[in-house]
Specification:
Pfam families: ANF_receptor. This protein is α/β, with parallel strands linked by helices and 152 residues long. The chain has a single domain, classed as Response regulator (Rossmann fold, 3-Layer(aba) Sandwich), CATH 3.40.50.
Amino acid sequence: MRLLHFSIFIFLLFESKSCQNNTARPLIRVGIAAALKTQNGSIGWGYTGGAVPLALQYLKGHGYLKDFDFEFHVEYTECDLSTVVKAGVSFMKTNDYDVVIGPPCAPALKMMGTLSTLYKKPVLGWGFVTESEFSDMSRFPYVTSVLPSSET
């Protein structure tokens, strides 16, 4: 189910994306706000980060993302709000990434979600982010999550 949500999110996000690199395939730039030491046994990037290339391989193998190239940049925010703001501004404003994944903690995702509204960039929440307020489309129109809340 999580993979289906991620697949739909990526497909809808980049369905009409124009070509940005020198090859015939569009480049999708992804910023990842990760936690390396915070709850390492469950949401730590060392434990969960391998899922990203596996998901891409699976989706490409099933014909969904085969016409796209991806570039990833990971910032270790450790769910710290000031570090999340720094990473979010870097991803969304300074470097103009196409999409942001994370951070995996609810308070930090609220901050990233607020930035996503300001800069109109999609954010994919993962980890411990099941709060129902992320379903408020007027507050977080660019945020989606791999885990559903009770109000989605």
